[in-house]
């Protein structure tokens, strides 16, 4: 796998170079000292993955990600030391097309690399996706509907799945739904567990809605937005409580959208609306089809408004979507369907 490194600090480029070269199958494609330099080099030589810093002179990582995804799209991992003070930039970059975010490794006192493991794990995951690995047969096997020991909630559920370009797309859908949505809303965004709390905060700031990370054992409440958290898969159990599971272990992306959609189809008898937004590969398509077969209204984002038309395309091919809509039409359409179901 050919990996490009973008960082304005020579020391950071050196540590990233060492991490990349620690894996025999990886090599450094090129290095860039700022976002503008990266845009130019990506256009001339598209690598398998770009490791993109956030805060740089000339052009920051969020704008560079946006331009690369527009001109010469390729997988981009946000790798930065400035997560705490610039968390908004992280989600801006992810919304522009970044796949995930991780902290920059550092050199220890004796020259050893510290904190490389999270980056290596994400690169290994990306290597699987480049090989078109999909967890066929890997969706969690759940009981059929009707096994719940509690009465229906009395309100529908809005289940949203997103990946590459997702934070911005999700925020626009939620903002369009408006205050006090007539449903509980669950967002499953492919993102590392270190960033889910920040994503919830960012979505709350962008939309004005009540947004929190879904807690184990918690029951969804109408009018609230929940974000799948951690590096495990979020599910709804037969008692309509949130739970987390490591299975399927083979799933490339975590949290897995198919897993949550399948659990909602099995364990939320009130039904609702399922939405699949921009993202690479096929996660969510099969789960969206299951929701549709259980009577849910299902929506896939159209090609023209996707950062990456992978997951919604797979849903369209499976005829999993009741409607295929441009991004800015999804929120109003979902609210109308939810209001009708809530009556």
Describe this structure in words.
This protein has 343 residues and is of the alpha/beta class. It is 36% helix and 20% strand. Strands 10-11-9-8-14-15-16 form a 7-stranded parallel β-sheet, with helices on both faces. Strands 2-1-3-4-5 form a 5-stranded parallel β-sheet, sandwiched between helices. A hairpin with a 5-residue loop joins strand 12 (233-236) and strand 13.
Main features:
alpha/beta, 11 helices, 343 residues, 36% helix, seven-stranded parallel beta sheet, elongated
Give the N-terminus to C-terminus distance in angstroms: 53 Å
As an assembly, this protein is single chain
Helical content stands at 25-40%
**Count the helices. How many?**
11
Structural class: alpha/beta
Low-pLDDT parts are: 131-143
From the alpha carbons, calculate the radius of gyration and give it in angstroms.
Answer: 20 Å
User: How much of the sequence is in beta strands?
Assistant: 15-25%
Shape: elongated
Brief synopsis:
36% of the residues lie in helices and 20% in strands. The chain has 343 residues and is α/β, with parallel strands linked by helices.
Write the layout of secondary structure elements.
Layout: E1 2-6, H1 10-21, E2 27-32, H2 35-44, E3 49-52, H3 61-71, E4 76-80, H4 87-95, E5 100-103, E6 106-107, E7 113-114, H5 117-130, E8 157-162, H6 166-177, E9 184-189, H7 196-207, E10 211-213, E11 225-227, E12 233-236, E13 242-245, H8 257-267, E14 272-276, H9 285-293, E15 297-301, H10 311-317, E16 323-325, H11 327-342
Parallel strand pairs: 1-2, 1-3, 3-4, 4-5, 8-9, 8-14, 9-11, 10-11, 14-15, 15-16
Antiparallel strand pairs: 6-7, 12-13
Helix pairs in contact: 2-3, 3-4, 4-6, 6-7, 6-11, 8-9, 9-10
């Amino acid at each position: 796998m050919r990996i490009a490194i973008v960082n304005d600090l020579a020391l950071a480029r050196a540590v990233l170079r060492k991490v990349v070269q620690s894996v025999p199958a990886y090599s450094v494609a090129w290095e860039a000292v700022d976002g503008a330099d990266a845009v130019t080099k990506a256009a001339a030589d598209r690598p398998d993955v770009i490791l993109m810093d956030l805060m740089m002179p000339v052009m920051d990582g969020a704008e560079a990600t946006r331009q690369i995804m527009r001109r010469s799209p390729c997988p981009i991992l946000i790798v930065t030391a400035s997560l705490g003070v610039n968390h908004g930039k992280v989600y801006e970059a992810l919304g522009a097309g970044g796949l995930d975010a991780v902290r920059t490794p550092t050199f220890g006192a004796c020259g050893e690399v510290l904190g490389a493991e999270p980056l290596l794990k994400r690169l290994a995951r990306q290597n699987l996706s480049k090989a078109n690995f999909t967890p066929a047969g890997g969706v969690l096997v759940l009981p059929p509907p009707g096994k719940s020991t509690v009465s229906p909630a009395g309100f529908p559920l809005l289940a949203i799945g997103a990946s590459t370009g997702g934070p911005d797309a999700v925020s626009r859908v939620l903002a369009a739904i408006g205050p006090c949505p007539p449903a509980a809303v669950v967002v499953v965004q492919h993102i590392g567990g270190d960033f889910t709390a920040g994503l919830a905060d960012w979505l709350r700031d962008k939309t004005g809605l009540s947004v929190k990370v879904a807690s184990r054992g918690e029951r969804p409440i109408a009018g609230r937005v929940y974000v799948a958290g951690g590096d495990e898969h979020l599910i709804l159990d037969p008692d309509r409580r949130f739970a987390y599971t490591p299975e399927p272990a083979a799933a490339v992306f975590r949290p897995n959208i198919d897993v949550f959609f399948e659990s909602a189809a099995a364990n939320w008898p009130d039904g609702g609306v399922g939405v699949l937004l921009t993202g690479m590969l096929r996660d969510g398509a099969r789960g969206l089809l299951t929701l549709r077969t259980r009577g849910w209204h299902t929506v896939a984002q159209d090609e023209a408004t996707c950062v990456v038309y992978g997951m919604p395309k797979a849903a369209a091919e499976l005829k999993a979507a009741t409607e295929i809509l441009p991004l800015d039409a999804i929120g109003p359409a979902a609210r109308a369907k939810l209001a009708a179901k809530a009556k």
